[in-house]
């Protein structure tokens, strides 16, 4: 947009939420539930995880107290905005069954949804939302329901001020600084005597909202402070992934012995796919009530780690753990390029943190790369 960056005082943060509510937005943002920072509807600033951070390592996630009252002083939680783009379960249609057993009065559910404002989206998450939109809306059969759920979303990005122990967005070119895809982008700055948000405007409606909230132009010192937050976060990445020639690397190593090693540890629980902001596998299930007169078709998240997911006539194509892990990782990092024109991974680190046995996608790739020269499955 090119608007001059502004500064929003911490004491005026509630005014920002009120301005969103006056525009009839349902605000979804970070809040604490069940020992984790999740996304849910919020009403006021005190619903945010004030003074909390997250500690993340492979197979480990803990909340911890910060020494300040940061509103957004954490990296990312187990949930992503995927739950709004592609809810975990939706009813596709409902119908009655008549006395001849035929479906009658088939009804499609309402596709309207609240007018959402997403507060606290990270740079990697904006990239993930764009990738998932390309998947769900870009083909010849776009998901009408996804469009209805998210096309009018007001996005307030918050630049990461701490990197998680499993983050590697810098390697993937997806962060830590959000550069587009938002209406407003906030950088939270806290020092001994100040607590404010450096605000960048990304759209006309972002400028309109900011105009409704007390703010002032950012001065040079405040801009430098925001830049320092971005640089510090980029230097804190817990992981990195060398993406050089990544697609060919994986295609050359489809029979690498590392797939057997990772299969010895993998539980095929599917957690990595559930928490991934771009994984989109679904299945459908038809259910009847006890009378057998009412039928509903439900679409539910599924995972390439289940045996059934690759079941075709004659059995499952991916019967082994080895083949299922290989399918997941090579789809994310290689075949996704062929299918959708980009990586399927944005480096958020969730699959590493939430894997119960701590399998680390960056470590698996590093092991294969280090051992290049093994059997070439394409020869
Ligand atoms: S890699 Fe980890 S999270 Fe993914 S299926 Fe295997 S054990 Fe579960
Ligand atoms: S593959 Fe792992 S690190 Fe990459 S986007 Fe998915 S959850 Fe995040």
Describe the secondary structure blueprint for this structure.
Elements: E1 6-9, H1 13-22, E2 26-33, E3 36-41, E4 52-57, E5 60-65, H2 82-85, E6 89-97, E7 103-107, E8 116-121, H3 123-137, H4 144-150, E9 154-158, H5 169-172, E10 184-190, E11 195-201, H6 204-210, E12 216-217, H7 220-234, H8 246-252, H9 258-265, H10 271-275, E13 282-288, E14 294-301, E15 311-312, E16 315-316, H11 321-340, H12 350-353, H13 361-370
Parallel strand pairs: 2-8, 8-9, 9-10
Antiparallel strand pairs: 1-11, 1-12, 2-3, 4-5, 6-7, 6-14, 10-11, 13-14, 15-16
The site of one iron/sulfur cluster (SF4) has 12 residues, from helix 10.
The proportion of strand residues reads: 15-25%
The radius of gyration over CA amounts to: 23 Å
Stretches where pLDDT is under 50 for at least 5 consecutive residues are: 374-379
* Tertiary shape: globular
Looking across the biggest beta sheet, what order are the strands in?
Answer: 3-2-8-9-10-11-1-12
Structural class by helix and strand composition:
alpha+beta
Hetero groups: iron/sulfur cluster
Q: Total number of β-strand segments? A: 16
Tell me the helix content. Answer: 25-40%
Query: In angstroms, what separates the terminal alpha carbons?
Result: 51 Å
Q: Could you state the order of secondary-structure elements as H and E?
A: EHEEEEHEEEHHEHEEHEHHHHEEEEHHH
How many helices in DSSP terms?
Answer: 13
Major sheet description: 8 strands, mixed
Rounded mean pLDDT score: 93
Keywords for this entry:
379 residues; alpha+beta; four-stranded antiparallel β-sheet; 13 helices; 16 strands; disordered C terminus; binds iron/sulfur cluster
């Amino acid at each position: 947009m090119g608007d001059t960056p502004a500064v929003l005082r911490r004491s005026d943060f509630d005014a920002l939420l009120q301005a969103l509510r006056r525009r009839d937005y349902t605000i979804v943002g970070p809040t604490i539930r069940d020992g984790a920072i999740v996304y849910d509807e919020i009403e006021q600033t005190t619903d945010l995880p004030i003074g909390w951070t997250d500690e993340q390592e492979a197979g480990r996630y803990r909340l911890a107290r910060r020494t300040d009252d940061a509103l957004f002083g954490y990296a990312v939680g187990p949930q992503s905005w995927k739950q709004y783009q592609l809810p975990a379960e939706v009813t596709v249609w409902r119908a009655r069954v008549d006395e001849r057993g035929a479906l009658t009065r088939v009804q499609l559910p309402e596709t309207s949804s609240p007018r959402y404002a997403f507060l606290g989206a990270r740079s990697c998450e904006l990239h993930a939302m764009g990738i998932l939109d390309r998947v769900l809306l870009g083909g010849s059969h776009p998901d009408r329901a996804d469009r209805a759920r998210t096309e009018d979303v007001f996005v307030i990005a918050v630049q990461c001020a701490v990197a998680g122990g499993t983050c590697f967005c810098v390697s993937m070119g997806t962060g830590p600084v959000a550069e587009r895809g938002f209406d407003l982008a906030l950088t939270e700055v806290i020092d001994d005597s100040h607590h404010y948000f450096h605000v960048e405007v990304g759209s006309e409606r972002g400028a309109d909202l900011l105009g409704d909230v007390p703010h002032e132009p950012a001065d040079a010192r405040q801009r430098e402070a925001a830049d320092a937050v971005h640089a510090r976060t980029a230097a804190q990445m817990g992981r990195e992934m060398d993406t050089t020639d990544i697609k060919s690397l994986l295609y050359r190593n489809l029979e690498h012995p590392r797939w057997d090693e990772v299969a010895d540890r993998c539980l095929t629980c599917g957690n990595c796919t559930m928490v991934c902001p771009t994984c989109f596998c679904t299945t459908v299930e038809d259910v009847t009530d006890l009378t057998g007169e009412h039928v509903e078709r439900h679409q539910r998240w599924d995972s390439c780690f289940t045996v059934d997911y690759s079941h075709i006539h004659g059995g499952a194509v991916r019967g082994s753990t080895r083949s299922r892990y290989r399918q997941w990782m090579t789809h994310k990092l290689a075949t996704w390029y062929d299918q959708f024109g980009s990586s399927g991974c944005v480096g958020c680190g969730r699959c590493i943190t939430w894997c119960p046995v701590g399998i680390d996608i960056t470590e698996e790739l590093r092991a294969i790369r280090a051992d290049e020269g093994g059997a070439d499955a394409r020869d």
